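Standup notes
- DV: blocked on the single-chain target, sequence here:
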Amino acid sequence: MRTDIARTLDIEVPIFAFSHCRDVVAGVTKAGGFGVLGAAWMTPDELEMSIKWLEREVDGRPFGVDLVFPGTGGDEKSPAEYAASMPTDQLGFVNQMMRDAGISDVTEELQREFIAESAGRLSMTREKSQEQLAISLAHPSVKAVVGALGVTPDWVVSEAHAKGVQVGALVGSGRHAAKQRDAGVDFMVAQGTEAGGSVGSITSVVLWPQVVEAAAGVPVLAAGGVSRGSQILSAFSLGCQGVWLGSLWLGTTEAELNEEQRQRLFRAESEDAVISKMMTGKQGRMLRTKYTDTWESDGAPHHLVWPMQSILWGYANTRAERGHNLDYWTYSVGQMVSDMKATTTVKAEMMRLIDEYVEALEALERVTSML
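- DV (later): unblocked, structure below
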């Protein structure tokens, strides 16, 4: 399992773990993999504190940071401007949904406070992303930064390479891969439509070899529906050099979800991980709930563009959590959700993946020996 990218990053196994929770990142990193902290929505102070904590926790082992690098279009606004421009139709739709669900109303003042807090986290400006990148590159344990939105800007690649840091990018098609290759990234994450969060429309088994071909020698990690060691072997057979897992860690004690939220995932089947634009305004996969169903119902308003839809979703999630009604809460999760049935730990999942990989490899060798 010590592929080229594993040697480059000096890790034992090419299992990459994306998580918003620093405990998951630390657990995977200490187990020989490569944890990647989902930090796009962190404030600079939160990011600085999290990286310092991780460096102490993993004792010098390498890990990565996942950020969003927006373009420089003229429509970019400050968080306060985004909050002030929330359309009344969509906001009224969410408020009526909450009333129909029996979730108590909030005052106009509290509504503004919730929306402002959501805008502060879920909007993104170039200034904020530059500050986040500078913080990440100032720490020697950060060996990779990964861009999760659009073609990686030149300034990101040049600044990271000046520090000897690898640059990764998520892609959903061979066309995307060619653009990222030309941008100078060091590795790509080929994310099939089975994955949680923002996704394209191509299934993993079709996408992975297409991206490998388009990447033309740039290492590719396989993502989208991976939760078993046999799937790691499958990814290798299709030309990938490792795997990128996100949803799997949500069922661990180290993850950011509470017990009630985890139980919602444990009861779900693959069909309950649905595609919608209601979370970010972009196509994404998430847990189906009454909230997602209502957004897809007749009479629902159109989805806002990113980041306005993200800000509205953050506001709605705050209302649902305060009202203790998870029917109107949701979370990004992939179709592998049906494999999650009970709370486990990061270490246990890492051991299971490696054991299953070995078993799958031995089974393949038995089959090929009979040919």
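- Follow-up: The longest strand covers residues 142-147.
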